[in-house]
Automatic annotation (TrEMBL):
Alphabetized Pfam families for the sequence: Peptidase_S26 (PF10502)
Organism this protein belongs to: Berryella intestinalis
Record-level Gene Ontology MF annotations: serine-type endopeptidase activity; signal peptidase activity
Domain of life: Bacteria
UniProt name for this protein: Signal peptidase I
Amino acid sequence: MDLGQHAEPRSSGMVRSIVRNVATVVFVFVLAWALRTFVFQPYKIPSGSMEDTIMTGDFLVSEKVSYYFRDPQQGDIVTFYDPAFSGDVRTLIKRVVATEGQTVDLVDGVVYVDGKPLSEPYTDAKPSYPLENSSISFPYTVPEGSLWVMGDNRTNSQDSRWFGAVSKERVTGRAVVIFWPIPDIRSLA
């Protein structure tokens, strides 16, 4: 009779252990999903449109929390869903050059916002010209609820000069830190 009494607690202890392990795994997956959905998202940069600020192959983190409390601002580096596709098919990264209501103009390779030339040391003095075969004409006034974004590598970036203003609703976060490769670790904010 002693064997039966010991067998029952052992099997119930094993069941509790399995349930506890499954609950832990589920909790970890739900926490990872929640953090990635609402707090931050890692990205690997596939192209040179933001060079030399962000290099091809860099890994970075885009945080989402600050945009729950404020709108993207001029100078922010934002991640957003590509306006060329509906839904969340592809994510792009660019710098906010102008916000809603501001007027962007490109004159002799220089970006003007509301009639004032921008100081843009991050472009390494690369000129900012309209893109060929684009339907965007200048000067361009950024519509309400939208942003004008451009890559820092102005001679190799399809950006708002190509697809126009980006709706703030398509913004997924603000790039804050490059975390790989190790020699390139630095803040972007």
